[in-house]
């Protein structure tokens, strides 16, 4: 048997880029992309991507060069997921919500050769390029992407995307992929816990992740996919390539305001979308007036942050069918999915939501996922109680961090990739994340997972949003401090009320020693709560200096949501940091 060699007929490097020529051959006349009044078929998308690859080659882009893009979910952004690797280059999608300094850092670190900039981001890009020029970083060539539906004429340098495509030759010979381990994309982590790191995906890893996620989510042929998740986030959790594999329709929208989302769902009969849990609040807000009705269920894959069970329950009640996944940039997006069991359908809504809020089991492209004691690397028992670090192993794990041997050394250990997340394994084998290891609160020697306290806060009927962080405590070292956003600004909610609610539902040591009412939680570009900022605010709030205020004659004197909360010095500080 060993004498049977690999041949070109039976051994072809795996690459998600190959889904595009297949889509051209199989779904050629079907709609591929919709953006405003613009529509393309799969044949047109294929031709446009070939033109892009040929134009890049004529600009001198070569195998392994980095091509960066700063753009929202527009057709050009979609096409780059194929056109850039078709030229042998590596696509680097940059988070559009970063500031100029962070964009410059990414351009310098990745040594980008070319930068595509959507017309709305020319100012941000211009500032970043000036920073780069003022340092020792090589400045990339720049090409602007104008609005395809309503061109504005905006320019930043000489090059423009549509003009480049017009010059590209769709019949030009393109370099063949010879090694599936070649890099396909470079994505920077969100920087929630430390400086962003450059994560490199291989063609092989991206191919396997794409196919496994389509299976995991049960995506059949002809899905209509609404781009609410930024494509810059782990390449849209691989569904950029996945839609080509399924001959789906990519509905691209620039903004994700509730009206835009509901309009697109109704107009294009959307069947699927992905989003961070924070978008659920947007969807529920949009539905507050009861104006939006889903004519058919929309399947939503959510992840990126813990979705509180109460939020899952509410969003499912208005017609969204939620699949919950857990992942990270380093795992090409989703690594665990809460695979649903039919028998759970018979359970009451809150129980179903509780089960669905668990992060789940490994996706098929992983060889294994486990929770281990970080010191001994022994697996924790399946008791839903013993916490350890979530670790992963398999083909969807990144090649590694670009130019960062120290981070690679720390992340890969004993044949596993260490996620930096703390979790438990339940009896049925489902993993549940409890916290990021950096967010665990250690109070008098007890570990308190902030997510457990947050879950309770979310069950309070007057609470719309909540986050819990460590606050220094003279006796216990640290105690939980809760930051809470009220659902109804006028009705108000008091600190005492929240504390009493928690007191009845959790062990005493877990009850926050302070509740701060705020208008909004500071969130980063991907909707993740910036706990670093909250911790910084909580540090100034030790229980020794801030007394819990007591109600006077039936009227609460604590800061209420309807009141002028920014008069409270601590809240003023929070509002200041959340504006940073
Ligand atoms: N379903 C989920 N439930 C809870 N947390 C989640 C879920 N999905 C993702 N996360 C959190 O998001 C993290 C991955 O986020 P991402 O890769 O975007 O960058 P980041 O980890 O926030 O940034 P950095 O590593 O630079 O701090 C996971 O490690 C986990 O903490």
TrEMBL record:
InterPro entries: AMP-bd_C, AMP-bd_C_sf, AMP-binding_CS, AMP-dep_synth/lig_dom, ANL_N_sf. Residues 22-402 form the AMP-dependent synthetase/ligase domain. Its EC number is 6.2.1.12. The keyword Magnesium applies. GO terms for molecular function: 4-coumarate-CoA ligase activity; trans-cinnamate-CoA ligase activity. Residues 545-562 have a biased composition (Low complexity). It catalyses: (E)-4-coumarate + ATP + CoA = (E)-4-coumaroyl-CoA + AMP + diphosphate; (E)-4-coumaroyl-AMP + CoA = (E)-4-coumaroyl-CoA + AMP + H(+); (E)-4-coumarate + ATP + H(+) = (E)-4-coumaroyl-AMP + diphosphate. Keywords: Ligase, Magnesium. SUPFAM superfamilies: Acetyl-CoA synthetase-like. It is an enzyme of class 6 (ligase). Residues 542-563 are annotated as: Disordered. Residues 452-528 form the AMP-binding enzyme C-terminal domain. Pfam families: AMP-binding, AMP-binding_C. Its cofactor is Mg(2+). GO terms for biological process: phenylpropanoid metabolic process. Belongs to the ATP-dependent AMP-binding enzyme family. This is 4-coumarate--CoA ligase. It comes from Urochloa decumbens. The lineage of its organism: Eukaryota, Viridiplantae, Streptophyta, Embryophyta, Tracheophyta.
